[in-house]
Amino acid sequence: MKLLIVIRHSFELWNPPDWFAERLRRDFPQLEVVHLKDYTGIDQHIRDAEIAIAWSLRPEQVKSAGNLRWVHSTAAAVHQLMFPELVESDIVLTNARDVHGPVVAEHVMALIFALAKRIPHAVRLQEKHIWGQKAMWDAHPRPREIAGAKLGLVGVGSIGRAVAARASALGMAVIALREHPELARPEGVDHAFSPEQLESFLSQSDFVVLAAPVTPKTRRFIDALRLRQMKRDAYLINVGRGALIDEAALAEVLRDRRIGGAAIDVFEKEPLSPDSPFWDLDNILITPHSAGLTEKLWQRHYDLLLRNLCRYFEGEPLLGVVDKQKGY
Question: Is 270 a catalytic residue?
Answer without folding.
Answer: yes
